[in-house]
Amino acid sequence: MSFEMLAPCHFGLESVLKKEIYDLGYEPSEVTDGRVYFIGDAEAVCRANINLRTAERVLIVVGRFHATTFDELFEKVKALPWEQFLPKDARFWVKKASSIKSKLFSPSDIQSIVKKAIVERLKGVYHISWFEENGADHPIRVFLYKDEVTVALDTSGDSLHKRGYRPAVGKAPISETLAAALLMLTPWKADRILLDPFCGSGTFPIEAAMMAAQIAPGVGRAFTAEAWTNLIDKKLWYEAVTEAEECKNLSVATDIQGYDIDGAVVSLARENASRAGVEKLIHFQQRDVAALRHPKSYGFLITNPPYGERIADREELPALYRTLGEVYQKLDRWSMYVITSFEEAERYIGRKADKNRKIYNGMIRTYFYQFMGPKPSKRQEKHADL
């Protein structure tokens, strides 16, 4: 059985997720703000959850339609083939409803009406008036945008950014999915140097190390749809995990480093790397950004520096970004990628970014400044590795 599937992502990073889905072997069918649609079967549900690094979750679309009144919403939800997805004992509820630029804008009313419509549909199909709901969880999500409604089943459960390696975080953390997406926007590869001078809980270095070692981000966690045996054979999950495990390569040679001025945070980053299974691929060190050095050329500096939310006095920011710019200038032919909400970052770094991309980090509008270094020739790459 094939499904229309939906993978939400950070606004502004749809192209990265689209490529991931394509590389996984599925054809993206539609791309909208913060969402990528594609067609897949039960196996695709498993493989997408386990392998996608930049998706927030994986959903099965039950239906899409236009609605401007609650009566219309009720009737169109009721008309969907819910019996194909929800067994008689399913525990189902509308986990979240969101509405943007739509006539129906009350999330709580939308949730209530969608639930009632599903119950009415299943009453007629299963010929019962009361549902025990003592079976597997089937959370439902509803999205309204310009009166276009998408109703979907959430196969992931916890957001896919919860890899399992970061039970605790440092200050002003960047999510795992966002860090992975930003890394994918750079030309960095496993055989190139990567350094984060404000590593915090280690997300950038850990995500880079997992990419280098081809460790699937979801291989060590559980998913809600694992209990949906009416839709997905249990063996498909085992096969997807086995496929992912066979790709893993912990013997890969890397030069990935993470620095932070806070020793306690560095210790936390090491613990997180150990939980992710990549502690041997990353060098963490307590170090002030002013002491940043690296003897090799053509490296990549990627970081989420302080931008006011984790510094008591915003007056410190100009000096911090000025220092970052100064140490970057001393690195030989490096590229630098900085995500920050500090709008004067370029001014104090001392150079206009070659590219600038607007991205939302949670509710914070940020900018991904890209300072491009020269690309090494094949001969230079070989010499740099010696």
Question: Care to describe what's here?
Answer:
This protein is α/β, with parallel strands linked by helices. It has two domains: 3-154, VC0802-like, CATH 3.30.2130; 176-215 and 248-384, Vaccinia Virus protein VP39 (Rossmann fold). Helix content is 32%, strand content 24%. It has eleven helices and 14 strands. The chain has helices at 14-23, 42-51, 70-78, 107-126, 176-184, 203-212, 234-247, 263-276, 317-330, 345-349, 378-384, and strands at 3-8, 28-32, 35-40, 59-66, 91-100, 137-145, 148-154, 193-196, 255-260, 282-286, 300-303, 335-340, 355-361, 364-371. The strands form two sheets. The protein has a seven-stranded mixed β-sheet with strand order 2-3-1-4-7-6-5. Strand 11, helix 9 and strand 12 (335-340) form a beta-alpha-beta unit. Helix 2 (42-51) runs parallel beside helix 7, helix 3 runs parallel beside helix 4 and helix 5 crosses helix 6 (203-212). The longest helix is centred in the first third of the chain and has 20 residues, at 107-126. The termini are far apart.
Write the topology of this structure.
Blueprint: E1 3-8, H1 14-23, E2 28-32, E3 35-40, H2 42-51, E4 59-66, H3 70-78, E5 91-100, H4 107-126, E6 137-145, E7 148-154, H5 176-184, E8 193-196, H6 203-212, H7 234-247, E9 255-260, H8 263-276, E10 282-286, E11 300-303, H9 317-330, E12 335-340, H10 345-349, E13 355-361, E14 364-371, H11 378-384
Parallel strand pairs: 5-6, 8-9, 8-11, 9-10, 11-12
Antiparallel strand pairs: 1-3, 1-4, 2-3, 4-7, 6-7, 12-14, 13-14
Helix pairs in contact: 2-7, 3-4, 5-6
